[in-house]
Amino acid sequence: MQLEELIAKVSRLPEFRQQEVLDFVTFLEQRYGHAEPAEAEQLDWSEQQFRAMSIEQAMRDDENEPDLYSEEDLMEKWQ
Length: 79
Fold this sequence. Notes:
flat; 3 helices; mainly alpha
């Protein structure tokens, strides 16, 4: 994929998705460095580091999601 094609595709995304792409590129830079893929050394991540990153990515923009349920929807409340 050419850089121009990538820029065009990313520019068509909503701003919050563009930020997600930028975050992913930053993640790749941190993981593999700035070297070309053939020269990059894969960094060893601990299981805890990988889980933390995975949870962070999964929960991204969660506060922007609409609330689907309210307390009235609960059948039982736990104290």
